[in-house]
Design goal:
Bound molecules: zinc ion, fe (iii) ion
Structural class: alpha/beta
Distance between the termini: 36 Å
Oligomer: single chain
Strand order of the largest sheet: 1-8-2-3-7-4-6-5-9-10
Strand content: 15-25%
Number of strands: 23
Number of helices: 20
Shape: globular
Length: about 675
């Protein structure tokens, strides 16, 4: 902007910009320069922007329905009364309906619908809220909903089904949900053949949320924000079959259709992604009708196609911002500002796959992809990389992948015809948390997760690293845990307990341990938690990754301050044997975690850096996330946790790119 006026007026104007900006505006930086030559402006004029390269336009994530549209939808005198696809410039689908760039109607799912006269008038009126709103539509010209089986008014039919205790497939923004009353959790689990993983719920409003969960001011802000993630809240009541840990994943309605579905008499529904074991979320009508037969009793679908599948985002609220377990719908494809000017690709890991692409000091992280070992998920991964490259006009000149040769993302990278660099898993985690916090230089990285290949060929996962983007040193870790039968231990936690307690008596196990056959050692925090959960009698057979840790956290009392014995061997490796013996007598999860916190503090002193970053999937543990920084700060360390990307493997692409940038220098 070039402005003329008294200095005071100008300053007032400038301070108004961030305060009065539209809700979706994002201001990265305001820079001012005073004393330009006076041109004698007499009005305020908006000039058209220079668009040499249309592809440099950022693409908005999907935005929940805005207050104005909600008001219109509920107003019987409005022409869009009860219309489930109402939207405007401030709200509506974006990323999930875009086929190509530049973002205009012809290149979205809305190309099938031509605007009626009334909509067209709004679209071209600069004073109108729908000026240039690409997905704009009304009942006359836009998409419509229908049920299968058909039976009168679709929304009323679906509402009746839900109230009668039926399981209904509901088409959302980025894919299909299975919706039902919370009393049907067991039935849904049976039909879906789903493990014990918790279900998320959708509540009509925050009043209902408060009946089931504790809700702080900060959590309410994130819950009601336009991103509409699933927020993990401390539950107040037992919700049998829905969740058996301490948290309930809650979201509020985000599409107009959701609001119509809840009406004013449905309070809470299970809303879980419609997918079959480890396959990506379903997003096509035909596919849902075919594959969900026998699972859903009815379908509430519509004829606006989803172009790109995108799961709901999932987060806790930490220090007033999102702390992601999954950064996806509502956030993706908004980039993270990081000083990387080269066009690079970070291929991510495997089980929680995602990728990252960089350009012009932005890193674009993909939505949640899933486990690449599933064929359909792998195809989705490949397609999304191509889609992102096209959307943001990025042609990577080099790629980074994990050091693990068996990861399918590594194989993908190596098949590309550009230089590929392998980045050690925990180094990438550390770099990701550094970039997330705009750090540079040397830090200590406490990187705790399930598994990652180390530079020495063994499995790492409870690491204290010292270094930066350019490289690292392994300062300390935990004594290796022999994994009896390798990967089998992630389901059978008693095997880990057996190894941790250094038991003997099971002939098969003893033979394996003695001969080291199919018994790799792992310095893994995830496995240490699994073993501890088994030793405490909390969980013996895990049905999903991380279940032991989640239940152990749920069982921990808040006001326990003491711990077990912290012991390091001569080379600075944490020897858990004394701790495990004490745990097996006392069975106190809080003391167990306090011991690890003490261990971490000692390791940070060994490393000697002022700054400490915490990354890796174990830091989804909110007990550790709260308490460890407290303890470290008291000892004078500056502690940094994730803010913009997930702490788990989903955030690794960012770290890979940041390390790659240094390797290329
Ligand atoms: Zn709106
Ligand atoms: Zn219309
Ligand atoms: Fe990891």
């Amino acid at each position: 902007m070039e402005l003329e006026g008294e200095e005071e007026e100008l300053k007032k104007f400038i301070s108004d910009v961030p305060e009065k900006a539209p809700k979706l505006a994002l201001i990265e930086k305001i820079e001012c320069e005073y004393g330009l030559p006076i041109k004698g402006f007499d009005d305020f004029e908006i000039k058209s922007s220079k668009r040499e390269d249309e592809r440099n336009t950022l693409i908005s994530p999907d935005i929940c329905i805005c207050d104005d549209c909600l008001k219109e939808m509920l107003d019987p005198s409005d022409r869009r009364y009860g219309y489930p696809f109402i939207n405007c410039t401030n709200c509506g689908p974006r990323f999930t309906i875009i086929k190509d760039v530049p973002y205009d109607r012809a290149k979205t799912s809305m190309s099938d619908f031509s605007m009626c006269e009334a909509c067209d008038r709004e679209y071209h009126d600069i004073e109108d809220r729908r000026y240039h709103a690409q997905p704009d539509a009304c009942q006359t010209c836009g998409p419509h909903v229908y049920t299968v089986p058909e039976s009168g008014n679709p929304i009323e039919t679906a509402r009746t089904w839900l109230k009668e205790g039926k399981i209904v497939c509901v088409k959302g923004l980025g894919g299909m949900h299975l919706a039902c009353d919370i009393s049907l959790a067991g039935e849904l689990r049976k039909r879906k053949q789903r493990d014990e993983k918790p279900f998320a719920v959708m509540c009509r409003n925050t009043g209902i949320v408060r009946q089931y969960c504790e809700l702080s001011k900060a959590e309410e802000k994130i819950l009601t924000d336009y991103h509409r993630p699933i927020v993990l809240l401390k539950k107040k009541t037992e919700l049998k079959g829905v969740t058996n840990n301490g948290y309930l994943g809650v979201m509020l309605p985000y599409t107009p259709l959701h609001y119509l579905l809840f009406g004013d008499d449905i309070d809470i529904l299970i809303m879980t992604s419609a997918n079959l074991s480890d396959t990506p979320i379903m997003y096509k009508n035909d596919e849902a009708l075919e594959k969900l037969e026998g699972i859903a009793d009815g379908f509430l679908l519509h004829n606006r196609d989803i172009q790109t599948r995108c799961d709901d985002s999932l987060c806790w609220v930490n220090e007033g911002h999102e702390y992601f377990a999954r950064r996806s719908r509502g956030y993706v494809p908004f980039p993270i500002k990081v000083p990387v000017d080269k066009e690079l690709l970070g291929c991510g890991a495997e089980q929680k796959a995602s990728f990252a692409l960089s350009k012009d000091n932005y890193v674009f992280l993909s939505q949640h992809i899933g486990d690449l070992k599933n064929m359909e998920t792998y195809e989705h991964y490949e397609k999304q990389i191509e889609h992102f490259k096209r959307l943001f006009d990025i042609t990577p000149t080099a790629a980074a992948c994990d050091l693990h040769p068996d990861y399918l993302s590594t194989a993908y990278a190596k098949a590309l015809d550009i230089p590929v660099y392998e980045i050690q898993h925990h180094h990438a985690h550390m770099a990701s948390c550094m970039a997330d916090n705009n750090l540079d230089g040397k830090v200590t990285g406490l990187i705790w997760d399930g598994t990652g290949l180390g530079t020495d060929g063994t499995i790492w996962g409870a690491e204290c690293l010292s270094g930066g983007y350019e490289g690292f040193e392994r300062i300390s870790h935990i004594r290796e845990i022999p994994l009896i039968g390798g990967d089998a231990v992630t389901r059978d936690l008693d095997r880990i307990a057996y190894a941790l307690l250094e038991k003997s008596g099971n002939e098969v196990y003893d033979k394996m341990l003695a001969s080291n056959l199919n018994c790799p050692g792992a310095s893994s925090m995830g496995r240490l938690f699994d073993g501890a959960a088994a030793i405490c009698g909390i969980l013996h057979k895990a049905s999903y990754e991380g279940q032991g840790a989640v239940l152990l956290e749920a069982a921990a009392k808040e006001n326990v301050e003491d711990s077990y014995t912290v012991e390091f061997d001569g080379s600075g490796i944490f020897d858990w044997r004394t701790m495990i013996n004490e745990l097996s007598e006392d069975k106190n999860p809080a003391r167990f975690m306090n011991t690890l916190i003490k261990m971490a503090a000692a390791q940070c002193e060994m490393a000697g850096n002022e700054k400490v970053v915490l990354s890796g999937g174990t830091f989804q543990n909110q007990y550790l996330l709260r308490k460890l920084p407290e303890v470290l700060k008291k000892k004078g360390f500056d502690v940094y946790t994730h803010k913009r990307v997930s702490c788990n493997d989903e955030g690794i692409g960012l770290g890979q790119i940041c390390v790659l940038r240094y390797l290329l220098k």
